[in-house]
């Protein structure tokens, strides 16, 4: 089949990005660090989830954050209050982080900190339901967030992110009683696309489900720590 120029360019871009992502992952593996890529639409609650996560897990895990945003360091500044390394990346007009951008964050992390001391790097991607899922950054697993305020049909209308996710957090569940929405229907729609995904309903406001999320994070870190470090 003859490809259009745009289609061929897209394939080449994804191929080049994948090579960069694989290279980034090599660094994380050499350091014994787990990297997770957090993706969602704007306003689904990624930053507040990270705030709760850092507050709860910082005493037991050494965590760094690579914070992606189109402009400003507002979210990065919120996370710096938890006394963890936070690398801010402004993407300009780009609607996602890519492997090259995260490579720059890795370089800065190596310059300013000792990455071999870390357990976990959390990448907060730019708020977008489509593009972040198509561009790997070197992560070991993808985490998607979907707020109950976004509706039950979003997984079916924007399937790529939910097909790629290893873990789905259904956020703001404290608002569900005030909405014409069923969390079970969201789960069913996601399972049509991705039967293997781990689904965790959470509320950063009430704390419901957060301990399940923390336990999943701990399991991800344990699964990749070298035996001599996890013993």
TrEMBL record:
Biological process per Gene Ontology, one example term: protein maturation
Domain of life: Bacteria
Record-annotated CobW/HypB/UreG nucleotide-binding domain positions: 38-200
Molecular-function annotations in GO: GTP binding; GTPase activity; nickel cation binding; zinc ion binding
Protein's UniProt keywords contain rRNA processing: no
Protein family: Belongs to the SIMIBI class G3E GTPase family. HypB/HupM subfamily.
Protein name per the record: Hydrogenase isoenzymes nickel incorporation protein HypB
